[in-house]
Amino acid sequence: MSRCGFCGTRGHNRQTCPDIRQRIKEEPNGYYAQREEQRQKRRKRNSKPRLCSYCKNSGHNKKTCTTLTHDRYQQTKKNKDFGKIFIQACKVHGFGPGSLMELMKPEDFADADNYRLDRLRKSWKSHGPLAMVIGFEEKYLNSDLAAARGYLGSREQVVKLRFPSGKLARCHLPTEFKDVVPQSDGCRHGYWKIGCPVETGGLEKAFSSEWRTGNMGVEYQLGLENGY
Fold first, then answer.
1. Which residues 6+ apart lie within 8 Å of 218 measured at CB?
2. Over pLDDT 90: what percentage of the chain?
3. In angstroms, rounded to a whole number, what is the distance separating the alpha carbons of residues 173 and 157?
4. What's the DSSP call for residue 63?
5. Dist CA 8 CA 6 (whole Å)
6. Where does residue 90 fall: left (phi above 0), alpha (psi -120 to 50 degrees), or beta otherwise?
7. Residues 6+ apart with CB under 8 A from 185
8. Which of 109, 129, 127, 117 is nearest to 195 (CA)?
9. The pLDDT value given to residue 22
10. CA angle, 29 as apex, 28 and 34 as ends, to 5°?
């Protein structure tokens, strides 16, 4: 039988040592009393049921969360369905890598606020009216652009461009896609349109298999990645 690490007596340990209990009783603000208080706090914290970090319910963790499994499936399906609609719209409009995007003229936005007009004029001055599509930001090109919550700010800028100067940039989808991505303000109220269409027979090859199957960005959409 092991001995107590405090008093050396057999039959108990430091946690149940009567000598330590007596010390705590005599010195309620002393060293051993403080240590016991900390130990009790740790036990109380550890006794609370652990919650799943995704659904916040107890009895399981994120790896075994059935809610997360269901949400992943549903989000993947939405993305895949959106991808099919988007590809079809691209083929109708001749939009894809190699097509030209064209900035609308400032005079076409006579009713726009000064901020938007200033941005449009600066874009004209800095880069000119044309840019070539070189790809897409697949992570953000998904069903959220068509869903109720949509995206905000730069996450709507899913088109990768290269200007004649060689400068690379991103922009919103052209206005021809406003019915495909109705929650994208940058598309519905933007000032980019398709300037010159291209042949899109093999457009699917321009996208990764992860995007085509709807898996691209799902973890991000469900808030499982930082920065959402």
1. 72, 75, 76, 79
2. 44
3. 7
4. G
5. 6
6. alpha
7. 150, 156
8. 129
9. 82
10. 95
The candidate with the shortest Cα–Cα distance to 195, out of 141, 134, 133, is 133
Q: How confident is the model at residue 227 (pLDDT cuts 50, 70, 90)?
A: very low
Handedness of CA 33, 34, 39, 42 (dihedral sign): positive
108, two tokens: 């076409």
The answer to whether 50 and 63 have CB atoms below 8 angstroms apart is no
User: What is the overall mean pLDDT for the chain?
Assistant: 86
Pairing state of beta strands 168-171 and 192-196?
unpaired
The answer to whether 142 touches 177, Cβ cutoff 8 Å, is no
Retrieve residue 23's tokens.
């010390």
C-alpha Rg value of the chain to the nearest Å: 30
Distant-in-sequence, close-in-space partners of 26: CB < 8 Å, separation ≥ 6:
none
Q: What is the pLDDT of residues 157-197, one digit of tens each?
A: 999 999 998 999 999 999 999 999 988 888 887 889 999 99
Query: 104 or 108: whose pLDDT is higher?
Result: 104
